[in-house]
Every structure is written in C-alpha cells, then in structure tokens.
Please model this.
Amino acid sequence: MDAKAALKELLEGKKFQIARGDPKTGRMTDRHGRTLAVISVNGRDIGNSLIQRQLARQWTGRRMPWC
Model:
C-alpha cells in the first residue's frame, strides 16, 4: 500500500481534527511559508500512523534520501 492509499484509508468517512502549528515549537509555517499542522482521528496522529507503516519518515530538520 502506498502513502496516498493509506492516508485515504485513515481519513475516508471519519471525522478528523486539524491543529494548526507545530506542537513542539509553536511555529505556524515552515521556512517556505507552508502551513504546519497535525491531523488526527480520535486523538491519533495520522503522520505517526504513516511513520509506523513505514510510508513516511520523522522529520529530522533536514531533507534525507528515502532509501
């Protein structure tokens, strides 16, 4: 399953919450002006769910190769 399909599965037909801002730093945007947010379903962080399925990686502060 790819990340797009997994995201659809995690969100489709469910009520989800979007919390704007980085919970660790409080920043609202990244250095490129993109909005930072956490998306959750029933209190579960969707980003962490994708990381657990090895379809995403934790951000380390710099771009890394995927492999």
